[in-house]
Write a structure and sequence with these properties.
Blueprint lengths: L6 H13 L6 H11 E4 L2 E6 L2 H15 L4 E7 L5 E8 L3 H7 L3 E2 L2 E2 L10 H15 E3 L9 E5 L2 H12 L6 E5 L2 E6 L2 H11 L2 H50 L8 H12 L5 H12 L5 H20 L1
Antiparallel strand pairs: 1-2, 2-4, 3-4, 5-6, 7-8, 8-10, 9-10
């Protein structure tokens, strides 16, 4: 069975592999169990599609609670064939849920009752959240987008608040019966990957982001150059129309010699800008003239045309 690695899978695998080195993994496991766990018949059941994540969660339970979760591997054929991993915890379930700050006095703890003391704890919690219900677009294939999907509005608001503590701007959107906390800004998504300490994924994301930003900048500059060139050509054509009008009505002789000279150069170089035309006239006549000087002569031409039309 061939599994195509998505960017979401890459980030999750990197979080999972690195999690084994953390001293305090309790908040990470807490978030994962809270948002992925099925709590029935005094059991905790966790279903995962990623082998690295399943191995990580398995090791966390062993490390924190000295228990060995029961693990099953199944082949799921709904929509597409994939391998799933089912972890079941049957020992000391209530104590584990209390230790994970999910249940207290046989009641689920509300988000506002859940306190994370340090930035490390908050980052760890967000990692577990991403492992459970997070996804991120591959920047090479589509736009920038990172999201978490949860069932309760209060949880969504808590996650939104948690991200803001790291100066990461996110928004909440209700989608069907779920709540999506999403981030669109590339800089913010980059900050999340830094927070997750997923170095390889961060480098990949930043490489693509720099390339796309550079490409967008080049396109914008090309568009500006094209717009400027079109404006230059349009201006030149209007000036030639004015010159033709003056010639048609025998008005050229009313202009001074220098203006007439500029007229001849405009007819020879109809698509040049004022700056380029000033350089050409200065070079070929050996009489310096500036861009503003060229502009001055064409204002005189326009004034004469308007004056004749209005009489």
């Amino acid at each position: 069975m061939v599994i195509t690695m998505t960017f979401t899978m890459q980030v999750k695998e990197e979080i999972a592999i690195n999690s084994n080195d953390y001293l305090d993994i309790l908040p990470e496991l807490s978030a994962f169990v809270k948002f992925s766990g099925n709590f029935k018949n005094n059991n905790i059941t966790l279903v995962m599609e990623n082998a690295h994540v399943a191995r990580c969660v398995y090791k966390m339970f062993k490390k924190l609670f000295m228990i060995t979760p029961h693990i099953q591997i199944r082949i799921q054929k709904r929509f597409k064939t994939k391998q799933i991993y089912i972890l079941t915890i049957t020992e000391n379930v209530n104590k584990i849920l209390e230790k994970l700050n999910i249940v207290k006095d046989n009641k689920f703890i509300l988000p506002e009752q859940y306190f994370l003391d340090t930035e490390e704890d908050k980052a760890s919690y967000l990692k577990g959240l991403f492992l459970s219900c997070g996804s991120i677009n591959d920047p090479k294939k589509s736009g920038y987008h990172l999201e978490f999907v949860v069932s309760l509005k209060k949880d969504a608001q808590y996650i939104n608040k948690l991200l803001k503590e790291f100066r990461i701007e996110s928004k909440i959107l209700k989608r069907n019966n779920k709540y999506m906390i999403y981030i669109k800004q590339s800089e913010m998504i980059s900050d999340v990957l830094k927070l997750f300490q997923t170095t390889n994924s961060l480098f990949y994301f930043e490489d693509i982001r720099i390339y796309r930003d550079h490409k967008n900048m080049v396109n914008r500059l090309n568009n500006v150059d094209l717009a400027n060139q079109e404006k230059v050509i349009e201006t030149g054509l209007k000036q030639i129309e004015d010159i033709k009008y003056l010639k048609k009505h025998d008005l050229i002789n009313l202009l001074d010699e220098r203006t007439q000279e500029v007229i001849e150069y405009r007819l020879k170089y109809p698509e040049t800008s004022f700056s380029e035309l000033a350089q050409i006239v200065s070079l070929e006549t050996e009489k310096n003239i500036s861009k503003s000087g060229i502009n001055h002569y064409f204002r005189k031409i326009k004034d004469l045309v308007n004056k004749h039309k209005n009489n």
